Amino acid sequence: MSEAEAHLARSRETLAVIQRMEAALAANSNRMDEHFHADFTWRGNAGCGVKNGLAAFRRNWQLPLRAAFTQRIYKTEKFLADGDWASCFGQIEATHSGAFMGIPPTGRRVIIPYMDFWRVEDGRIADNPVFVDFAAVLAQLGRDVFAGEGWEAFDRAERIPPAPPENPL
Q1: Cα–Cα distance between 27 and 50 in angstroms, integer?
Q2: Cα separation of 97 and 156, whole Å?
Q3: What is the pTM of this model?
Q4: Predicted confidence (pLDDT) per residue in 11-67, tens digit
Q5: Diameter of the chain measured on Cα atoms
Q6: CA 51: distance to chain centroid?
Q7: pLDDT number for residue 156
Q8: What is the torsional sign of CA 133, 22, 125, 38?
C-alpha cells in the first residue's frame, strides 16, 4: 500500500470512529468510554469551558446539555477527515427544557450551531477542540450578549462603512 493509500485508509478509520460517536450521542448513550480516551481533552470556546477527561466531559458538558436541551436532533452538514484528524460542522435542533445560562426553560425549539474537531488515537478520541455558538442560542432565547453592538450591523447595506480611499502609490 502506498503512503497516499495508507493515509486515505487512516482517514476512513478516523471518520468511522467519529460517526459511531455521533450516533451514540444522538441515541443518548452513556457509554462514551467506547468513543473517548478516559484522559481526552474537550476544549470549548468561551462560555463552554475546557473539560479534562471523560468524567469532566460527562459531568460538565454532556449531562448539562441533555438537561437544558431535550428532543435533540443532530444535523451534521459535512464531515472531513485527514489522517488522525476529523472535523464537522452542523447544528443540534433541540427543545429548551431546562435552565440554560440563567434562563429558565422556555419550551422553545432552538438551533445550536457547532464545529467539532477530533484527533483519534488507537480507535478513540484523544483531543476534541469544539466551537459551539452559544451567543446564537441565547439570542434565540431573547438575550443579546452583544447588547446590540454585534457586527451583524456591518452586514446591512445602510450601515456598511465607506471603503477607505485607494492608496495612490
Answers
A1: 24
A2: 34
A3: 0.86
A4: 999 999 999 999 998 898 999 999 999 999 999 999 999 999 999 999 999 999 999
A5: 64
A6: 14
A7: 74
A8: positive
Q: Amino acid identity of 78?
A: K
Strands 124-132 and 36-43: parallel
In whole angstroms, how far apart are CA 20 and each of 25, 96, 131?
9, 26, 20
Amino acid at 160: I
Residue with cell 478513540: 124
Q: Which residue, chain included where needed, has cell 478520541?
A: 125
Where b means 16+ CB within 10 Å and e means fewer, 50-83 reads ebeebeebbebbbeebbebbeebebebeebebee
Collapsing DSSP to helix, strand or coil, 55 comes out as helix
DSSP state string for 3-35: HHHHHHHHHHHHHHHHHHHHHHHHTT-S-GGGT
95 to 72, 73, 110, 115, 130: CA distances (angstroms)? 7, 10, 6, 20, 21
